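DATA SHEET
Item: assembly model
Revision: 1
Owner: S.N.
Input lines:
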Amino acid sequence: MKSVTTKLKLFRPALTSRCSYSSTDQTLLLNEFTRFCYQRDLPRALKSMDSLQSHGLWADSATYSELIKCCLDHRAVHEGNLVCRHLYFNGNQPMLFLVNVLINMYVKFNLLDKAHNLFDKMPQRNVISWTTLISAYSKHKHHQKALKLLVLMLRESVRPNVYTYSSVLRSCNGMSDVRMIQCGIVKEGLESDVFVRSALIDVFAKLGEPEDALSVFDEMVTGDAIVWNSIIGGFAQNNKGDDALKLFKRMKRAGFTAEQATLTSVLRACTGLALLELGMQAHVHIVKYDRDLILNNALVDMYCKCGSLEDARRVFRQMKERDVISWSTMVSGLAQNGYSHEALKLFEAMKASGTKPNYVTVVGVLFACSHAGLLEDGWYYFREMKKLYGIEPGREHYGCMIDLLGKAGKLEDAVKLLNEMDCEPDAVTWRTLLGACRVQGNMVLAEYVAKKVLELDPEDAGSYTVLSNIYANSQRWDSVEEIRTRMRYRGMKKEPGCSWIEVNKKIHAFIIGDESHPMKAEVDKKLNQLIHGLIGIGYVPETDFVLQDLEGEQMEDSLRHHSEKLALAFGLMTLPSEKVIRIRKNLRICGDCHVFFKLASKLERRSVVIRDPIRYHHFEDGKCSCGDYW
DNA sequence: GTAGGGTTAG
């Protein structure tokens, strides 16, 4: 802290008296004010500021800057307003630097309108004024405003610097924005700055261009731990967990230590790949960060998504503090794993704990209702969410309700709700309704709905399949051919079914029609044995292909060798008998496999968990956690 | 003097 006496020298020239006070009295007043500001004595400083104002006096900028810092520390919005009013009192125009400080204060108080107002009133603005505002809009996701400000700034011939670019890059919604900004960066010769680079890496990752992110990263001569986190996080967020893990190894070899942010991304990578063993290994290394909220949240999510609910519950129970994300993660995790009632109970506990639910939490709650067919609960939470929690229902909430109504046989109500939506239904919403049509066997509606999906998402192979099968069933071969032509024209193929299983920390993939697995012959043999064993206890292999193909989601062609059956056979052969068999797959499980796995869990006395893109099935002793409702 | 980078839930 600077001494008060040096400050006094600084503001002496500013003593232009317009009142009857003697210059000594004025000095005393200013002296006192400065002292209170530097002592961070907010109440006294404000009182003192009042007397200055009544005598038409202003102190120097550094002192006010100190006072504003004090307001920020105390989050004293009202007091900040008083300081601002004082500085503009009687038509005074504070100097540029001080207005920048004020703008920054309003930004930190999340009062962007006030910040922008001051900005508009400035007779002159420098690069910091612009950057403060641009960065604020970027952070608050007002991306259009941020980009527009950059353009206005250039028009006023104020040259952006590394601060400006690293902030505004966050607001790029498409590659064309990035390319434009990259031009500016190169023109100013700022491309080697580490902040600019990490912002570029982030934006490429966000836009789903991890290869571009990697090339920016690889061109870097010197980096730091944060850039490593950017690139690892970028891959983890883009469902490229294996790449993220490879980079993590590289980071360690380069001599960097993994801290919370890195480990969180590593966990996310494990979560995406359902690598329970590796995730558990990471858990051992992060016990020293056991108070880190974000890391614990990621850990809970990892255990939920790997289907290891016991571990998830344990971590959640032991957390020292929990935020809305912790609770939401656990609520959704329970719901996805088939524990809907426990999810709703936890939601009530969350409210009792005083944590306010948000948009995502309610999605989890409605998800729990929809996956257990809890019609009344679903309606209750949906109808009351606005009144009870102040949350407007969005697409995801409507989606859960449409799913709930549709699967519960209230297809008409589902359609009615879709038509009543406040927001425009998108392809996902219509696809949800299509799934309900399938369950209810309503082909007339399915045809209409599938067409709607294709209007919004012409690349949706599942909906083409639905249409094609409906036409085939009613012998409308012309229409069948038309659909096939359209699919060929778009170069579309059904995604092949694929299942993964982790054995000895290695992932084994099983894909329909793929012969490349080294133990393929043994796996086939084991599967055939298993099928025979199951037929012995009442398994009847499903043969109704057409029915199976009537799917909103995509289904595999050959029922007998669905990839999860191969993965199960392999798991039974290789994993010790006490271990739970965990399988992750890219498509939703079909009815035949569901029966197959229930019986297999009984015959082989094994617990099996299957994670599909939407939810999880825990098979044990002939039963599934979903209660055959999915 | 005032502005900039990484991590968690659907």
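QC remark: Residues 500-624 of chain A form one domain.
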